[in-house]
Specification:
Length: 158
C-alpha cells in the first residue's frame, strides 16, 4: 500500500514537473516565431495609466526603469512566469516627434534581419529598425492598414 502511494505521488510530481517545463520552455512566447511576446504602451501620464490598470484589472508594475531620463515600467504576468508589457511615459524628445499615446504589439521572430527585409519588401514603413539592447534585437514598423507592429529576436548578443 505504501509503495503504491509513493509511486502515485512520484508519478503526479513528475507530471507536474513535466507540465511546468512544457509551459516554461514550449509555451514561452519569447521562443515561438509569430507569438505575441511584448506590448509597449506609450502614455502621456504613466502614473494614471499604471493606476487605472491596477484598479481595473489588478495589473501591477514589477519594475521601474529610468534609462537616460526615460520612465519605463515593466508589467509581469499574474502567474509570475514572464514579463509581457511596458508602460512608457512619452518624454519631451518623443513629443517633439509628435508621438501620441498608443500601443505597439511585438511578435517574436527567429531571425530579425530576415524578417525586417521581408516586412520592408511587403510594404512596411520603418519607424525603428534593428535596435539591439538587453539581449534582444527589435524594431517597429507601420504595416499596410496603418497599424504599428514590432518584431523582436531574443537571445541576441550586444
Amino acid at each position: 500500500m505504501k509503495k503504491a502511494l509513493f509511486i502515485s505521488v512520484l508519478a503526479i510530481s513528475l507530471l507536474l514537473n513535466a507540465a511546468t517545463a512544457y509551459i516554461i520552455f514550449a509555451k514561452n512566447p519569447m521562443m515561438v516565431q509569430g507569438d505575441k511576446s511584448w506590448v509597449d504602451m506609450y502614455t502621456n501620464d504613466a502614473n494614471a495609466t499604471e493606476k487605472f490598470l491596477n484598479e481595473n484589472l489588478g495589473i501591477k508594475v514589477v519594475k521601474n526603469v529610468n534609462d537616460n531620463g526615460m520612465d519605463y515600467r515593466i508589467i509581469q504576468a499574474k502567474d509570475g512566469m514572464f514579463p509581457y508589457a511596458g508602460v512608457m511615459q512619452i518624454c519631451d524628445k518623443m513629443k517633439k516627434q509628435n508621438i501620441q499615446p498608443h500601443s505597439t504589439v511585438y511578435f517574436t521572430v527567429k531571425n530579425y534581419d530576415e524578417m525586417s527585409k521581408q516586412f520592408k519588401a511587403n510594404g512596411a514603413k520603418v519607424l525603428l529598425d534593428g535596435q539591439v539592447t538587453q539581449g534582444m534585437k527589435f524594431g517597429f514598423f507601420i504595416i499596410p492598414g496603418g497599424v504599428e507592429v514590432g518584431i523582436v529576436q531574443y537571445g541576441v548578443k550586444e
